[in-house]
Amino acid sequence: MTVAPAEFTPIGDSAVLVSFADAISDTAHAQVVALDRALGSDPPAGMTETVPALVNLLVAFDVTETDHADISAHIRGLLPGLQAQGIAGAQQRVPVCYEGDCAPDLAAVADATGLSPEAVIAAHLEGDYRVLMYGFAPGYAYMAGVPAAIQVPRKPAPVRDVPAGSVIIAGPQCLVTTLKMPTGWSIIGRSPARILRDDPDKPFLFDVGDHIRFERIDLATHHRLSAEAEHG
Amino acid sequence: MAEAVFSVVFAGPLVTCQDAGRPGNMRFGVAASGPMDRLAFAAGNVALGNPPGQTGIEVSPGGLILHCEAGEVTLAVTGGDFAVEHGPQKLRSWSILTIRKGERLAIRAGGAGSWAYLAFAGALQTGTWLQSQATHAPSGFGGGRVQSGQKLVVANAETRDDRLGDIPRPDFTAQGRITVVIGPQDRHFDPAAVETFLSASYTVSDAFDRMGMRLEGPELRLQAALSIPSEPVVRGAVQVAGDGAPTVLLADHQTTGGYPKIATVISSDTDRLAQFRPGDSLRFAAVDAARATALLRAYLQDKARYLHDIATPRGTFAQRLMRENLISGWTAG
Predict the structure, then answer these.
(1) ipTM tops 0.90
(2) Chain B environment of A180 (Cβ under 8 Å)
(3) I want to staple B35 with a disulfide (CB 3.0 to 4.6 A). Which of A31, A96, A113, B41 is the partner?
(4) Which domain holds residue A217?
(5) Which of B27, B293, B295 sits opposite A51 (nearest CB)?
């Protein structure tokens, strides 16, 4: 893959935004992930953190050690060597229960798509999901890969107090919620997976660029795994 | 070890435990949080003899009333110009006092400012999240909100007589216009929008919490109903929603978002901006990014010097009396 010219934009006093495209594409995101990893293994002096998103990467720095120009120069030096194609994110399996109260919108998604509830579940399980970025709330990971057959629009009114662990399809993206929150998107399952881990070495389950497969579990298994997660 | 125990008689909304914050987690959707006014927070701690990031309480204009149930502890109140009542004694913020069993401390919004800070000569006991006691208010993660009826425990509580009295306020912070760096989506606005943003007066609205401050003023029109791919956002980002109203993102900001951003408030101005109140008006002025970095470097140097200066104990009342007698003795002689 050839790497498109990156655009560098200063953000305030202590960050640079490196953009690979104006519109969302797999190529642009692969470049974001590749640059994020390259900076992880070869950080410029004074870099404090990087924030990968859909088409760009924020690189924040400590002004007492460096500035926009030096950070940008370091990144320009890394760009020619980026291997965006060969990046294999970690493979992760996330259990989902699609039964009863866990899946309040499953029937509505089936109605909207003309599929049976079983076919909606099968389509969701077939998706090969990739973590694009975190945002909106702590641990809220946007995953690409919802099959076209089950992409449905937002509901007319949001539902409040949706429990943590809800598996939501939002157009082409899938999310597993981490907090009780309102959502206007369709809740088709519930996962006992703990995304917020409070483990200093790996505080969140996913890294941007990871590949996710969902695995179907029944209600009894969901309850058992939820109880286990609760007790650490 | 000595312990001071407080019951929370009353806590307004958005009163939270804070430490210096948890930077470095934006990639996981987690803002750094920490105090809205980092300078005032650090000043209270340092003047008390603590490390600058020691866990304390951020008090909103809703106020806080504590009753000391057991023990005694010296504490500092800094931040906005809040009214402080210690038993029958009426004080202002930017002072250090010792509270003892049976006494009451009330902190209420005063003449100016939106956030006050309470620092303790001891370890405030709270939960932690990602190795920080800072509260991320939208989720409640971290040290947590302070709520009426709860108990607060300060472990290793000390009284520090040589720290009592007024804290010199910072004298180096900028005045007047709030400084920004324009962008990154300035091209997406009407050509006149940046000019309007930099010339008009904006008013702080009631939509002001730890996540951000929405401003009222002339509409900042986008060239088209355009959506940008959701991208990383920082503290200080000025995002503009579809209605053309700017919102400055603050301590508990979302880490990514799809609203176009017309500018970013420089880091050395976000603390003083956070102390504005609903109804206050403000104006913006732009500098380029290199100038913004230089301004921040100068600010950090001034801040370090100030914190160093106020960290020196002024001595007990008796010691101060002695010193003043000596000085006046010399000058009179």
Answers:
(1) yes
(2) none
(3) B41
(4) 91-230
(5) B27
